[in-house]
Each structure stands twice: as C-alpha cells, then as structure tokens.
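Example record for the data management plan.
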Amino acid sequence: MTVSKNINNPVGMGGGQRKRLSRAERQNNGPHRNLDRQSAADQKAELVRKMREKAGTAESDAQANDDAAQS
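Corresponding structural encoding:
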C-alpha cells in the first residue's frame, strides 16, 4: 500500500469517493432542508386551523350572547 505525504491520510484507506453535490446542496439547501420546510409549513397550517376554530367558537359565543341580550 502506498502512503500519501500526510501520514494521517493514507491513500486507499477509508472515506471513499464523495458524492457530487448540486449547487443548492453545496449552499446547505438540500432535500433535508426541503423536508424541514414542509414540516414547518404543516405545523403552521395546523396552528392556523386551531386558531381559526378558537376564533370561530368565540365569535359564535359572542353572537349568542348578543342575541340573548336583544331578546
């Protein structure tokens, strides 16, 4: 086995070849980040849905109270 000039990096040992990265992946914008963004969007949508439900129930309660007060 041949040894490179750097004794800590012998040629032919470990590592293997590196995968070719796209430009987006080199800029830390790979598929894992897209999945993170998707999950964040899902969480936001769920939060918005819950807030709207809460606002809708509060609004319907307010209308019921107004109707009772007018009667």
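Summary line stored alongside the record: The chain has a mean pLDDT of 75.
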